[in-house]
Design brief:
four-stranded antiparallel beta sheet, YVTN_b-propeller_repeat, Host-pathogen_enzymatic-act, Methylamine Dehydrogenase, Chain H, 3 helices, signal, mainly beta
Length: 347
């Protein structure tokens, strides 16, 4: 056991050891039995949606549910239901699309599963990150996985080949789901729920080099392709903050719907989509004018889980019941719902 996991998780090990031990078996063999749901930080709610590089598969989760759903986007069918999680937090695909990672803050782990078989990989399938493991960001080459830990207020850099922690970065204040790498991979941007700030980490040294303040209940963040601008959802003030990264300050805000969680940039960088939890809407912001140009209705408590196809023609928005709304961006409207909740329940 590495030093980080020993020092941060020892106090909670007795509570979660039985739950954690059951996860690999359930995830691997599809057993119906699930452990009693004892959460470590269940009062914190978030969702996640990851799209495979070939855009054929979507993997989704909601922290209130102990299952992770895998969809075939071509057919709209459920490919699999991965059971045995407690509070799944974030999902990210490996660059080659052959596997994906799921963090769970109650289990204190990040599991890596095969995209085809939906089973844990033979090696380095469970990465120990300690109770509180939350948001994740993967390097472009897939060799490094950064994991926010909201309980220990740290970020861990894990080597994906060995599953070992290579660095534990301290100095954060409850980092949750918001974590993004700069386009060149040189900087890591980490949201801090306490203090409402974004911490900037130099990925070459694994050292904090600065911070940006001035947010109000910060949620999701995104960074433009040129690395100059950061967008952040302020759920406390119902707006999206616009940040000049070089100046390290908020230069403006764009009012959106109530309780915004999302701040997803389209592939061409021209628009930001904000999931407004309390309004059941998504606001579309024109980056050039910093104005809302469309408001799309018909969602069910959308949060930060918004992704786009590479051509930018389609947006997928995750709903609270783990159905996915397919949005035609040209018309800014929902055109389909992928695998409704009833289909998941019947799987």
């Amino acid at each position: 056991m590495n030093t980080f996991f020993r020092t941060t998780a020892l106090a909670w090990c007795s509570t979660f050891v039985l739950v954690a031990a059951s996860v690999p078996a359930n995830a691997a063999n599809g057993a119906e039995a699930t452990p009693a749901r004892v959460t470590f930080d269940g009062q914190i709610r978030n969702n996640s949606l990851a799209l495979s590089p070939d855009e054929a598969t979507a993997v989704v989760s909601y922290s209130e549910r102990p299952d992770v759903i895998v969809y075939d986007l071509a057919t709209g069918a459920v490919r699999g239901v991965l059971r045995g999680y407690v509070t799944p937090r974030n999902i990210v695909f490996a660059p080659d699309g052959k596997s994906f990672y799921v963090s769970d803050s109650s289990l204190g782990t990040v599991t890596r599963l095969d995209t085809t078989t939906l089973k844990p990989l033979a090696t380095a399938s469970t990465l120990a990150a300690g109770p509180g493991a939350f948001g994740t960001a993967l390097s472009k080459d897939g060799s490094a996985l950064y994991v926010n830990n909201q309980a220990s207020s740290t970020v861990t850099r894990l080597d994906t080949a060995s599953g070992q922690a290579k660095a534990v970065i301290t100095g954060f204040a409850q980092p949750r789901q918001g974590v993004r790498l700069s386009p060149d991979g040189a900087k890591l941007y980490v949201t801090n729920f306490l203090g409402d700030k974004v911490t900037i980490v130099d990925t070459q040294t694994d050292k904090i080099e600065g911070e940006i303040t001035g947010f109000n209940k910060i949620r999701a963040i995104s960074v433009t392709a040129d690395g100059k601008t950061l967008f952040a959802a302020n759920s406390g003030s119902n707006d999206i903050a616009v940040v000049d990264i070089a100046a390290r300050r908020v230069t403006g805000t764009v009012p959106v719907g109530r309780d915004p969680y999302g701040a997803a940039l389209t592939p061409d960088g021209r628009f930001v989509y904000s999931g407004n939890l309390a309004d059941n809407t998504v606001s579309v912001i024109d980056v050039a004018t910093l104005k809302v140009v469309a408001t799309i209705a018909g969602f069910k408590q959308p949060r930060q889980a918004i992704v786009f196809t590479r051509d930018g023609k389609t947006a997928y928005v995750l709903n609270e019941d783990l159905s996915i709304s397919k949005v035609e961006r040209a018309g800014q409207r929902i055109v389909a719902t992928v695998a409704a909740a009833q289909a998941v329940a019947a799987y």
